[in-house]
Amino acid sequence: MIALAFDDLTPIDAILAVSMNLITYAVLLYATKLRSLGYQQWICRKLVHITLSLIIAGGINFFTSLTGPLITLILFLLILFGISIFKSDLVTLFLETGTRSGDSKVDTLVASISALIGYGLVVVFFINYPEIITSSILIVALGDGAGEVFGRLFGKHKIKLPWGNKSLEGSFAVFIMSFLSILMSLALFSNSKLNFPEITPLIFIVSAAVTLLEMIAYKWSDNLLLPIVSAYLLAYLLPILP
């Protein structure tokens, strides 16, 4: 379990840092390739969004200290800096691939940074509760991710907002995947013997709140708000914290 301290870099941390960066850049390259082959922009963007958040959710709890995530981020930036020197157009392609239609590349940078801040705050404040950390990140990866996928494919009942359109079908997907994300994280990581029939209505409440937040959030703000709000709701409502 990750510790709230900056200790020496362990072999496990080093392996995780390298592995997560290799997978991250492989996903970015693959999404960029798909875009060049004519795949729709939103498909490529969601591939990056969902996969990279899953990588973080899957790896963050296995670092031994905060040194591991810090080295991972530094390594990511160093690789990006190297690419920008020798093939700057590739960095531009990365940004364009991750940019929502109608948004700018600056919006994409802000969205990415917001997600990292949200994840980082959850890790720091709930360092001893991997079920909360994992739930909050998976909600962004699977809940938010499924919302757009299902909304674009099946969204017939639109929800009009001043800053964009959502759909009832997409919001329903957010709810279902958020619910499953919490349930799976609790089953995997919770050390206490939780009474799942008893806590299911509470998970329902958290999932509904997350769904409403995702529905009304402005642009990239959901990347910041969803992990933080979901983490605090889980900590407050569920019998996890002492």
Description:
- This protein is mainly alpha-helical.
- It folds into 2 domains: 1-98, no CATH class; 129-242, no CATH class.
- 75% of the residues lie in helices and 3% in strands.
- It contains 9 helices and 2 strands.
- The chain has helices spanning 11-36, 41-59, 67-86, 88-97, 105-125, 130-154, 168-189, 196-216, 221-237; strands spanning 158-161, 164-167.
- The chain has a two-stranded antiparallel sheet.
- A hairpin with a 2-residue loop joins β1 and β2.
- The longest helix has 26 residues, at 11-36.
- It is flat.
- The two termini are 18 Å apart.
Looking at this protein, list some descriptive labels.
3% strand; single chain; 2 domains; mainly alpha; 242 residues; 2 strands; two-stranded antiparallel sheet
Strand-helix topology:
Layout: H1 11-36, H2 41-59, H3 67-86, H4 88-97, H5 105-125, H6 130-154, E1 158-161, E2 164-167, H7 168-189, H8 196-216, H9 221-237
Antiparallel strand pairs: 1-2
Total count of helical runs of at least 4 residues: 9
Overall mean confidence score, pLDDT: 87
Whole-number total of structural domains:
2
- N-to-C span: 18 Å
Low-confidence stretches: none
Radius of gyration: 18 Å
Number of strands: 2
Question: Which structural class best describes the helix and strand composition?
Answer: mainly alpha
Shape: flat
Helix content: over 70%
Q: If strands are numbered along the chain, what order do they take across the biggest sheet? A: 1-2
Q: Largest sheet, if any?
A: 2 strands, antiparallel
In percent terms, what proportion of residues is strand? under 5%
Order of helices and strands: HHHHHHEEHHH
